[in-house]
């Protein structure tokens, strides 16, 4: 993937310089229903060809050329050439799918072809469209643009794309190229009764981008893809200012080229945007060293229906009443548009090293993590996978590489399983990323590994650690393979105090299996978790679950029942509604229990004050009392 200098791509959204304004993508293949052709003429102005339309899948995760497929030998293979795993076979993965989810290669549930995907006609607000034209703001109501901005990446989104249709599309897409154009769009929306939904990378996993069905107004999606530039880097104060549409990997790559990092690395960094991170209160895997997004944001600009919110000074901390930036962080597109963000940046650490540890069981691993938090000796990243994920990780070995490469010699494996008495169906693994100077990293390693010994931890080597983190990006593509064979899968997460981690993990996993069986699932069910973040007072736990829907005629209903029951169980076990995925429309039902009635009223009052006409009408976070609008 070739990098490009700033300025070269002023007119296109970029992922590592991959887009060209002249590129045409097969998204042109979407068809309009006959009504669209009759009722609504395609209206387009200055449409940029952004990465979203040219290199991303229309009905799944990630790059179009990268997916898991069954090759001619019957093995799973990862296509393309973008990832280390690309072009390689994973001979253990198919047996893993068969054993753990009961898939049968003869029973395929392929997606509908793109050409058959029908798009409803747009509800054009002509006066708003004319305004955009006069003010030189790019727009389109073409079906291919509307489909690509109508969803995030929940199971529902994928099921709609693969087998049905999206219940409601944005009627128009607008591409502001700077903050002043965003201000004009918001002003016009208020004047001409237009609803708006901002979209960054489109990686939402909370139905936050879905257009609400009851919304009677025309809905325009504000695609931030053109606002993707670093505006300045301040090496004195170690800050940078960037436009909110910049995609994580582009931001990081351009900072790296100048010797800096922003340190924020969510697993979705390849496709999620800076504005999206702020709007969802995102968390990155290296938060131990750099902090979560709320720790990294120094300052931001926010365009609301009432005008621009920005601080009058760019200082590191302020005592001036409640922090208004915390009203914006996590606002999920309900209050306005994040246009520019000043972030802390850091010199790239001279040394980055991976590491891994193996523990006899999950309890020992969690006890170790608790001790690490007490001693505050967590490296930049520290993750603990349970036995199910440990086994799954091994099943994703390519022909040449494996989780056990660090313990390559069979003598080492014997050391763990025979000499140390670990059981293969109980042992778990932790992976780490250490960053700093050579001395700092050595010291971090020594301290962590010495502590691990107290919990029977065995050092698994650097290569195993590296492998664990590399898998992160590939795992996101696995669901699409499962869906080809009737598997529905999802991940969800929570924040939980230390004393409740074990109980919560065990209960939620058991509940998922119980609920699936009760709902008629006839095949083995995947329920697995990992501890992904370490805090003084608790941890973030991240679950994967999946089941084979073969034979069920109400698979989405079954899925919803299990997911809802799992969230209820999480909350009953002392966990939270979310740690970093946010609320969207998916988890709204638990907001009252989370913030209380007074809290809900306060959120509604803020919404009413900033956006009295509910122009930002994505209906995330809370249901608005109609009297207030
Ligand atoms: C495979 C995968 C891995 C993930 N890993 C992580 C992870 O490690 N950590 C994590 O925190 N999350 C993760 N997520 C969730 C998701 O990536 C985050 O919520 C991310 O912050 C969303 O950013 P985005 O740019 O894609 O936002 P979008 O999906 O485009 O939008 C999300 C919400 O933010 C609003 N929004 C977007 N941009 C703006 C803006 N400029 N102004 C106002 N509102 C805006 C939208 O209206 C919407 O409500 C993951 C998701 C997937 C699919």
3D structure, described in words:
Its main location: other. Its EC number is 2.5.1.26. It is found in: Peroxisome. FAD binds at residues 198-204, 280-283, 332-338. The model is unreliable at 1-12, 19-28 and 402-410 (pLDDT under 50). This protein has 20 helices and 24 strands. A hairpin with a 3-residue loop joins strand 23 and strand 24. The chain is 34% helix and 19% strand. Strands 21-18-20-19-23-24-22 form a seven-stranded antiparallel sheet, with helices on both faces. Strands 2-7-8-10-9 form a five-stranded mixed sheet, with helices on one face. Strands 11-12-16-14-15 form a five-stranded antiparallel sheet. The longest helix has 23 residues, at 462-484. Among the domains are: 16-59 and 111-225, 2-Layer Sandwich (Uridine Diphospho-n-acetylenolpyruvylglucosamine Reductase, domain 2); 227-347, Uridine Diphospho-n-acetylenolpyruvylglucosamine Reductase, domain 3, CATH 3.30.465; 486-582, 2-Layer Sandwich (GMP Synthetase, Chain A, domain 3), CATH 3.30.300.330; 588-628, Vanillyl-alcohol Oxidase, Chain A, domain 4. Helix 18 runs antiparallel to helix 19. The site of flavin-adenine dinucleotide has 37 residues, from strand 9, helix 9 and strand 16.
